[in-house]
Design goal:
InterPro entries: Beta-lactam/transpept-like, Glyco_trans_51, Glycosyltr_51/Transpeptidase, Lysozyme-like_dom_sf, PBP_transglycosylase. The chain contains 15 helices and 5 strands. The protein is mostly helical. The strands form 2 sheets. Strands 2-1-3 form a 3-stranded mixed β-sheet. A two-stranded antiparallel ribbon has the order 4-5.
């Protein structure tokens, strides 16, 4: 049988070497022309855009020079002032006078790497991003103390990429212009601690009736716990929730090596005595906090803290005070119906005689009708009991 021949492929005519070399050189020239002309244009445009954007980031001159904007004043129905929203309000306490327990508590719970990072904790950012991806929603934050200072002092609260980028740029500026001690100093003197208190000095007096310089470890831990959510963790609103938060702070302090396990357990057992609010202002703080949250959501932090607003509300101070007292009375009645739950703690009478400081102290103004305080039961008899409490 005859074998079939495979059809031969047609060969393409070869180009002359001179022609191929010409096109190759033309391609190379064109490519390098694009690289040397287009890339610098894009790079220059990007750099120019970044520099223009950086100029919109606030300067830290305001922070260093202690320029205090007018803030917002809130008035009741009768045009009397019931609250102010200002960036800084109260006595400025230098870093050297801030108690170590407070500094360590804040660093432990807010930014454990504070002394090591340069304003941005990249490890925390990656960790938070991974947690968000796993849970499908925002579960963790990665803001350092420096970033919180930048955000709360200069920027608006909206969640946008532009504002977040400003926060990062400003954080780097702060780190480059201030020492770590100065950053902590400004942070603790400017942050809001709830109940109308701005800065740690005002917070200490508002919650414990004393200067920040006199805070004990348990008190410092509770103050530090307020930073995450001042209204939610206020001991005057929800003491149980505030105690739980205090426990978290103390645990973090132990993990970071600032306190021992024995110190943590002792601090958790220590009773806390809150200062009494003044008669004119205590019932209005809840309302002022509500107005503050409303204004912040609607207008942003920049406006309410720097715009010099005057806000007139429908608050009837007398009705508010009556409602507050009525609520307290009702809660006491509910508490009584739930029954006796046992003593808070036990005190050895011999130890009390040797150390009178074990006696609970009111730590504030003399008690008023309707107030409550803690006391030591010295003796119980049929139909009567003997108790002892300071200031009674």
């Amino acid at each position: 049988m005859a074998q079939r021949r495979r059809p031969r492929k047609k060969r393409r005519p070869r180009r002359r070497s001179g022609e191929a070399g010409f096109f190759k050189k033309l391609f190379l020239v064109t490519r390098f022309t694009i690289i040397f002309l287009v890339v610098p244009v894009f790079a220059g445009t990007a750099l120019g855009g970044f520099l223009a954007f950086a100029r919109t980031v606030p300067s830290i001159v305001e922070l260093k020079q202690e320029v205090i904007p007018p803030g917002t004043k809130i008035y009741a129905e009768d045009d009397t002032l019931i609250g102010e929203l200002k960036i800084r309000k109260g006595v400025f306490v230098p870093f050297d006078e801030l108690p170590p327990d407070l500094l360590n508590a804040v660093i432990s719970v807010e930014d454990a790497q504070f002394w090591k990072h340069g304003g941005i904790d990249y490890t925390a950012i990656v960790r938070a991003a991974m947690a968000d991806i796993i849970h499908g929603k925002i579960k963790q934050g990665a803001s350092t103390i420096t970033m919180q200072l930048a955000k709360n002092t200069f920027l608006t609260p909206e969640r946008t990429f532009r504002r977040k980028f400003k926060e990062l740029v400003l954080s780097l500026r702060i780190e480059n212009n201030l020492t770590k001690e100065e950053i902590l100093e400004f942070y603790l003197n400017r942050m809001y601690f709830g109940n109308g208190a701005y800065g740690v000095e005002m917070a200490s007096k508002r919650y414990f009736g004393k200067s920040v310089r006199e805070l004990t470890l348990p008190e410092a831990a509770m103050i530090a716990g307020l930073l995450k959510a001042p209204s939610a963790y206020s001991p005057k609103r929800n003491f149980k929730k505030a105690k739980n938060r205090q426990e978290v702070v103390l645990k973090r302090m132990e993990v970071e090596g600032f306190i021992s396990r024995a110190q943590r357990l002792k601090a958790l057992k220590t009773s806390l005595y809150l200062a009494q609010d003044d008669e004119d202002g205590w019932s209005n703080n809840y309302f002022v906090d509500y107005v503050r949250n409303y204004l912040q959501e609607r207008f942003g932090q920049e406006v309410i803290y720097k715009g010099g607003l005057r806000v007139y509300t429908t608050l009837d101070k007398r009705a508010q005070s009556v409602a507050q007292k009525t609520l307290q009375k009702g809660l006491r009645e509910v508490d009584k119906r739930r029954g006796y739950r046992g003593p808070i703690d036990h005190v050895n009478l011999d130890e009390l005689a040797a150390d009178p400081s074990l006696l609970p102290s009111y730590r504030a103004a003399p008690p008023q009708p309707g107030d409550t305080t803690r006391a030591i039961v010295l003796d119980v008899r049929r139909g009567s009991a003997e108790i002892k409490a300071e200031a009674l």
